[in-house]
Design a protein that fits this description.
Elements (H helix, E strand, L loop, with lengths): L2 H11 L2 E6 L6 H14 L3 E5 L6 H14 L3 E5 L12 E7 L5 H18 L2 E9 L4 H6 L10 H13 L4 E5 L10 H10 L4 E4 L5 H10 L3 E4 L1 H5 L3 H13 L3
Parallel strand pairs: 1-2, 1-8, 2-3, 3-4, 4-5, 5-6, 6-7, 7-8
Helix pairs in contact: 2-3, 2-10, 6-7, 7-8, 8-10
The structure holds SN-glycerol-1-phosphate.
SN-glycerol-1-phosphate binds next to strand 8 and helix 9.
């Protein structure tokens, strides 16, 4: 079973939680500890990556260590063409669709594609849209940020992603954002597309997570909450429960 078909079949039965671990934010031991605790808290998939560029070797070492200790599938969430690893189960082959710089729309992808082909890793095409305030990814990715009332823009890009054949749409407020993507936008985008909808950035409470999931997100991503927590499992469990139990 491919990772994508696992995502699809899970999202048909309930809402899904993914934990993002950015290897640039801490050392390998801590990344590995977060992954183990997130797994125990009930997360469904582990996403490894972020917008601070790290090299293939660092990706390999982090993913190899996590794989030794965790059973959940590992999906790379790349910030650049160097953030790849043969040890992951899959990689989001993502396009930052609202970037001003074609490198983030298709350039890094063209550099990485021959290596990914050689590795034989599963690639999951994903349209990635960055919303206000965007945080680091908004700056690094040179995004024309979508405003929180930018409904038309959000729908236009999301439909474009689906019509281009992408398999997921990701609405991103930016890691560590003080606000989430507007739930009304989540709800309208969900009504328009038929591929799974991922939402992340600024989700730090069970209430936030439930609100976004109830609005229509199929998959909720959290990162910062676990990275900042002393007790990762205790911090994540109520959020994961809220996601899994939402409608
Ligand atoms: C970032 O959406 C993710 O790509 C996670 O955001 O770190 O704010 O949870 P947080």
């Amino acid at each position: 079973m491919t990772v994508y078909s696992e995502i699809l079949s899970l999202t048909k039965t309930r809402k899904v939680h993914m934990t993002l671990i950015d290897p640039a934010s801490q050392d390998i031991d801590r990344s590995c500890g977060i992954a183990m605790e997130a797994e125990k808290a009930g997360t469904d998939f582990l996403m490894i990556g972020g917008s601070t560029e790290i090299n293939e070797e660092a990706m390999d070492e982090t993913i190899k260590e996590i794989r030794k200790k965790c059973l959940k599938k590992i999906i790379i969430f790349p910030g650049s063409s160097s953030m790849i690893s043969r040890y992951a189960d899959a990689i989001y082959f993502m396009s930052l669709m609202n970037s001003r710089n074609p490198e983030f729309i298709v350039g890094h992808q063209a550099k990485a594609a021959p290596y990914l082909k050689k590795m034989g890793i599963e690639t999951i095409p994903m349209g990635y849209l960055v919303f206000h305030p965007g945080m680091t990814v908004g700056k690094v990715g040179e995004a024309n940020l979508i405003d929180n009332d930018g409904m038309e823009n959000a729908i236009g890009y999301s439909l474009t992603a689906e019509m281009m054949g992408m398999k997921l749409v990701y609405l991103e407020a930016g890691s560590g954002s003080p606000v989430t993507v507007n739930p009304e936008i989540v709800s309208e985008v969900k009504k328009k597309i038929s591929i799974p909808l991922i939402v992340g950035g600024g989700i730090r409470t069970p209430e936030n997570a439930k609100r976004i999931a109830d609005s229509g997100a199929d998959i909720i991503v959290t990162g910062t909450i676990a990275e900042k927590a002393d007790k990762v499992r205790d911090a994540l469990r109520p959020i994961i429960d809220a996601v899994i139990n939402s409608q």
